[in-house]
Amino acid sequence: MGNPANTIPTVDLSVFLRSDGDEAAKQVAKEIISRACGEYGFFQVVSHGIPLELMSRAMDLCKTFFGLPDEEKLKSRTRAGSPVPAGYGKQPDQSADKNEYLLMLPPNNCNNVLPNNPPGFRAALEDIFTHFSKTGEVIESIINDYLGLPPNFLKEYNNDRSWDWMNVKHYFPATETENVGISSHKDGNAITFVFQDEVGGLEVLWNGQWIPIVPSKGTLVVNVGDVIQVLTNEKLKSALHRVTRPKGRSRYSISFFYNLQGDKLVEPFPHFTTQIGEPPKYKGFLYKDYQALRIKNKINPPYKEIGIDYFAI
Ligand SMILES: O=C(O)CCC(=O)C(=O)O
Ligand SMILES: [Fe+2]
């Protein structure tokens, strides 16, 4: 496949957002997504329904927020006892990852600690969160259909949006000796969306090489996470990816994690096991247990996320 840069396929989602969307065009888009998921675990979407003005305003406000003095940012630091690191934080010094972040749960969640400064930031975050959540439902339904699951099967299984989160990050410029923004990992959730600024640095492992996902205005990067890998008994795989930091400039991104409600049992669906005579590749587990394990190991030694192999049979 020619030049490895910019080979992650891009799909126009507008056909799925209109009630009169052309069925043949939907089919073409589904096939592109299905091939991209099989080959890379990643694809990109445009015309996804999130207003471009909101995306660029949210990104500008993120840059302003992270440029504020620590004292101001720390007003939004994670509250003691919060079950997830909602609010502002910096990766621990011992971590290979070099970024500071602001993590939010759905608007109105009591664990949110959202900044009042800069003005309009909080409203923009809440607005974009709500849009991401809808885009998540659209992608989930496309995945449902091309997997051949009964209509709305994934939607009914994953019917509670209260555990979704969004993470806004500022990656510091690389130094002479290191450039890790986020070390190579797979996402633990169901579906991830990333809106990266123009700087670049997100890379996916494909056939043993790291391929850059070249930023493009208004484009969202989408990838499936460990939950989809387990539910489909590896028919779809969660891909390894990482962020490298360029020298001399900061990088910003907004990632949305379409998760599961914590009490959901995650185990391979019968459609991909008993119904086709395949043994399950994973033991069942509660989503909240996997999430807690990942968070615990990320913010304490070994400062790395635990992978889904933990539950492999
Ligand atoms: O910042 C990015 O481009 C991606 C971040 C990422 O992979 C993650 O937060 O899991
Ligand atoms: Fe990730």
How does this model look, in words?
By secondary structure, the protein is of the alpha+beta class. It contains eight helices and 14 strands. Helix 2 (23-39) packs across helix 5 (121-146). Fe (ii) ion (FE2) binds next to loops. Residues 167, 169, 182, 187, 194, 196, 202, 241, 243, 253, 255 line the site of 2-oxoglutaric acid. InterPro entries: DIOX_N, IPNS-like_FE2OG_OXY, IPNS-like_sf, Iron_ascorbate_oxido_reductase, Oxoglu/Fe-dep_dioxygenase_dom. Residues 162-260 form the Fe2OG dioxygenase domain.
Summarize this entry quickly.
By secondary structure, the protein is an alpha+beta fold.
Shape: globular
The percent range for strand residues is 15-25%
Rg, Cα atoms, Å:
19 Å
In terms of structural class, how would the helical and strand content be classed? Answer: alpha+beta
Side by side, the strands of the main sheet go 1-2-10-7-12-5-4-3
Annotation, overall tally of beta strands: 14
Order of helices and strands: EHHEHHEEHHEEEEEEHEEEEH
Percent range of helical residues: 25-40%
Pfam families: 2OG-FeII_Oxy, DIOX_N
InterPro entries: DIOX_N (IPR026992), IPNS-like_FE2OG_OXY (IPR044861), IPNS-like_sf (IPR027443), Iron_ascorbate_oxido_reductase (IPR050231), Oxoglu/Fe-dep_dioxygenase_dom (IPR005123)
Keywords: Iron, Metal-binding, Oxidoreductase
Family: Belongs to the iron/ascorbate-dependent oxidoreductase family.
